[in-house]
């Protein structure tokens, strides 16, 4: 049956598919614009992005300058969020810290997405023993509870923010791979992929030009939700002292030092916590909204 | 059913081997020589060499792996580099504490999550639904270490109702269990809500209504039982992140469980300790997943065949 | 004869108010069901027949659905006006329902015996044991072998035909006065279909209830019903006895439906089909709703909606063809020509 599809017919199928995809994309942007959760989440993310750019302009003090005589001051007109145990301005540190959290979040998700998508496409497209090997390996990775795999990796590579990024990224690989594998298996059986093959496309072109664009939506949704988890995990590892090291203004690390002063200076732990929570909330809202916009079935 | 369990067990075996392999390989990547760490700074070259020989570090990698597996099968996870005590002994002291924490946390996850989800689903888009869903969204966004500190500050430092940290009485369990269970509860609540909403739209719920049953009976007898089935899987997955979360929560509340042991071992570069801790936690998770799968199968059998 | 009337529906309007507008799914319905009688409601899917059946027991999902007007009188008492608690006492007790999909209409995790028994405990205040015995009795009555064993089983252990029998047992457990059967045999094999219909007729003779039989299948109507209401686009377009309907169908739509049936003893070149599509319930035309598909259509039909008119004693039809205006219209046309 595959072979019997005429060239013109195949070309037509491909162009129909392209048009469909374009329409779907337009519809998507319209729905996402109407989705309140996604809009709110998007604004939160934009707000944090602008902080990372404007930190040097906005920060009233040097985030690393130690002024021991100013230490542990509560919030005041001079130091809006107070000062820490070394007399550094917490607001300035928080502003600079947004760069770290976002950088770690995005790089680790990109890292995980890159390998996850690649593995998922290969497993889903080729199937058979290739799929078996990849899927079993993913099962093994998923058999590690929560961030324990990340912990094991950090124990080997040593504590640092870059290693946290890698560790959290590795942990994302199986999640991306699973979703991509499933979607690839669905898409590759579409008639239009057969049509492309009759037009003489090789596997590489089929996978990256034709299958990949069709499975982008679940990847984007997963990416947004993973960003939330990645930022949480990275901050958690820094909190444990396994990520960013002092005097880095990473929020998790700041929280960790704030813990020692919970009795006397609770604001030291409060502000970094709010920053992490709102950013994660933003990505969760955005991801939820994206999912609703892309998958109308999920909308209630 | 028995066949399913056996099949599932057969699947578990390669996963367990994979887990041991990953743990083994990661530890091979550790820079620095375990023998030097163990012998301590300033030990003579001969002592280090002797230790290397004793630990089998001169053997090829696959031989080391097989002897590692062999040791595990004999119940040995090696000795701590720090005090040369068997790792397993330490784990057996720590594991029950972590399991107790995990048990109460998952209890909170289930009870809180289900209650909230049902409240939401019974009156969708009502004030109660929206407030529950907002709280649930916050619940998945708050970092557990921050939530832990907030709870500690409020209930232990300000109100002084509960102890700050430690693991001596039931009162000590409350805050850590809430901290650890909250995120899962939020996820279970969201899942329960959407599952319930889906079930409430099913034909058999309409049949129940047509019989004249009370709304209460319809929700709890006819809808909930069916809605719970997909929630079982979510709870199982939550158990995994919960086990991982013990690492953080035990550190926040200074509980001497398995999670804190692993973190401390990473700080002191006590490789066998990290290896053993991660391995045991993963095995527990694999086992729990097996249990959840079997439960799911038992409940889902009726629906599968529809 | 008034006391024979079980259920009387007057000017029933059930609308769905959505963001796309108002869908007038049921738009002014009148019919009467007498004791021991079977009334068929026929029509294509989407004509509002299932919404009618759900409206009677007030099972319309709300929002978006709402009964906006009309009365549903059971022994003269209006179901529309009842409180939730009052209507619950009617459901499954005085009025029961059988649904189209026996596969999905039974709860998959509850033993079928319990699903029958719970209604008995509720409405007839039977004890757990009595209710269970009655449930087993009902399962035997609907012709399922080994009822004691079957009662303890869950739906997935039963075949489709057996499940529909269980549905019937469940519906009849409290000996209702009215049974609403919404396409009860559509999802079943032909042989099973015949058995289930036979069973329903048999039980009707024993219990004496009135049946509202909702279907799109005129063959089933011919077999089961005393009277038929033909629905089109939310309204009844024809209402008469089954025998008359097949002999002298009045409405062009009914004529089309009957024309589209294969006939056993006649030579037929091909089956007639009704051209065109049903108008959207969000936006009905001003005139007759069938006008666009009607072979006899006149200007009159497009401009004004026809009322139900009584042709013979018991024949009712919603069509301009049977009015005086129609004759005048034809005369006018001839004059112009």
Short description:
Chain A has 300 residues and is an all-alpha fold. Chain A has helices spanning 7-34, 36-58, 90-126, 128-142, 148-157, 161-188, 191-198, 203-211, 216-239, 251-259, 267-294.
User: In which range does the helix fraction of chain B lie?
Assistant: over 70%
Q: H/E order of the elements of chain B? A: HHHHHHHHHHHH
Sketch the topology of chain A as an H/E string, one letter per element.
HHHHHHHHHHH
Number of helices of chain B: 12
User: Mind describing the biggest β-sheet of chain A?
Assistant: none
Strand-residue proportion of chain B:
under 5%
Distance N to C terminus of chain B? 18 Å
CA-based shape of chain B: flat
> What is the arithmetic mean of pLDDT of chain A?
83
The residue-averaged pLDDT of chain B reads: 85
Helix content of chain A: over 70%
Query: What is the CATH architecture annotation of chain A?
Result: Orthogonal Bundle
Number of domains of chain A: 1
Write down the CATH topology of chain A: MetI-like fold
Poorly predicted ranges of chain B (pLDDT <50, ≥5 residues)? none
User: From the alpha-carbon coordinates, what is the Rg of chain B to the nearest angstrom?
Assistant: 24 Å
Number of helices of chain A: 11
Q: Looking at the chains present, what oligomeric state does this protein adopt?
A: heterotrimer
Number of strands of chain A: 0
| Overall SS class of chain B | mainly alpha
Distance between the termini of chain A: 40 Å
